[in-house]
Amino acid sequence: xRFRDSGPRAAAGRVAVTALLAAAATTGPLAAQVGSxxxxxxxxxxxxxxxxxxxxxxFGGNTALAGVGWRAGPLAxxxxxxxxxxxxxxxxxxxxxxxxxxxxNTQRDTLTxxxxxxxxxxxxxxxxxIVNLTGAKTWHGIAPYVGVGAGWVLPSAAETDTGGYSAGSxxxxxxxxxxxxxxxRSLAARFEVRDYFVRYEWPALYFFPVDxxxxxxxxxxxxxxxxxQWTHNIVLTAGFVYGFNF
Length: 246
Known about the structure:
By secondary structure, this protein is mainly β. It has one helix at residues 2-34, and strands at residues 43-45, 50-59, 73-83, 88-104, 114-132, 137-139, 142-155, 159-160, 166-167, 170-182, 187-195, 197-201, 228-231, 234-244. The protein has an 8-stranded antiparallel β-barrel with strand order 2-3-4-5-7-10-11-14.
């Protein structure tokens, strides 16, 4: 009689133990997959694939070693971003800055050769890639990124100074660090720090200047320097972002 009673009880016990072990084994993976409840998760999907940004800021400027480079001034820009695969975005940016520059007449002495500043409007255009550091999501509404681009800076009117320096278009490299702060799914603010690496080329008369009689004058740049120079031009911008889908 005792043997018959122990059979069903033992089987029931084994079933209960097996069920408890299975529940314990699956609780961990399920919890890991679910994560934070959607209502309290700090991460939210970016649902727009394109953004348009209108921004303003300041072009840092850098007169370079010769003192004739582009100077600081206000800046305004338009920008279009489109999402690629993964965390990558492609962007195109157009802007203009109110700048100015000095001129050097290498035929004059050191006291009178530099004149200005003369106002110029600069047109800046570049395209490049950014990497969203939180992927295709925001963290507490914030979407930080790093990027790099390349393009050109062009003055409203090119000119060549006496002495041979040409103040025209310049190639630029543009590393950037920024973030978007989303208020809704399609409206955000953008804050960005960029560095326009601008390349200058110096004429021979900056190293060996002569006056109109052919007499040697003090050099503008030391003859031991290179005839090309890369300069930093820090740019700070803030703007409004509108997101949409094509």
